[in-house]
Amino acid sequence: MLRKIKIASLSLFALSIPFHAYADTGYYKNFITKTVKNLVTDYSVNNYDNKDDTQKLQSAINELSKNGGGEIIIPAGVYYFMNVELKSNIKLLIDKDASIRPYLQAMYDNGGDSIFNVGEYNADVVKNIAITSLQKDQRFTVQLPAITKVSGANPNKPFNNVYGIKVFHFFNVKNFLTSNMNIYDSNTKYSAMSLNAVLSDKNIKNRGKFPTYGDVKNITIYNAAYGYGAVQAQAASKIYFENIESQGGAALRLETGYAPMNDMRLGGVSDIKADNIRCLNGSAALTLSPHTIQTNANIDAHNIIADDCNFAVRIATGFISKKNKTVGLTPGIFKNVNIDGIDATFGFRSQILHKDFSLLSKDLQRYIYRTDTHLEALVGPSISAVGYVGGPGEKINYEASLKNIKMHGFKPGTKEITFPSDKGKVYTTEE
User: Which residue has the higher pLDDT, 215 or 425?
Assistant: First the structure.
């Protein structure tokens, strides 16, 4: 059933609004540690070679966590890690002149898809984790190189077959902070940070548990692939997102789309706060997509800003994917969604999918062009401030409150909110 979309005045929102609408209302609580170690001087890590440093960092984490926790300083230099398991009461303090990189050979040889993994296999919840910069208000660097090895068996869709990589993959963790980093991507698969539910058969005891009480702040990713970007939350509760930016993809994806999770009826996102979420040359700053999950609720977002993206906010209705195997699934929903302050600037270099071509007028469709056949999206014009789009064959099935929408540079008459009913004829030949 099509429900009424609430829209407030357009005149109140401006880019000069302070970014900290939620001052001191994050969910993460700082914790005290007594021990301080240096990864280079205390664990003999060579921070200027190209060798795998994972085991030495893992030893430091294991030692400190076993003895009540502590801080591990990662000084200036270059470090290679893969599948590091963070444990309770650990702070990683990374120098602003440090570069964190994935050790890809370990991924190719042993599997895994994350530089840092938290709570997927632990017997108990991982409590009190912080990964941030050593210097206050400075940022360290993460570099994600192009993935050259290919897995899978579909040569017609090479992007869907490549190995994917995440910087952080969080599962059964409580009270955490990730902040103050710039991520330089190479159009790799997956969002840089993923929040998910435990599904592994190796951890039946904690199946379905997911991240709670966390702050994710001051993160920028460059050159992200469409459909991915900075952060994806598939299963999370009581998380505060602030100052998240993505060049390409989506800055913040509240999308519960992992088929096995949907089939198990696990996961969902609830009690989410977000402030100053930005997108450049991508899909959207904020995406909501429930797939079949019913437990998505209480989303409170402020200052959602897009420059040359499809939309500032993309709201997808629930739908059942062909990948789902469970009988009796129903389209998912979001409950109590409030988005205040939506600012969209038109451009010609957004990332656009084939299914969205028809949301553009004929005169704008001619500006769509292909830049790389290995990418999932093409380059094309921005569509509108908000895209209220349906899943395959599905109608809009939940309500959102959208306040203070502002648009710049769009063709006169462009609607602030685009609906599935706005689809028209496709004229483009994807030049």
Answer: 215
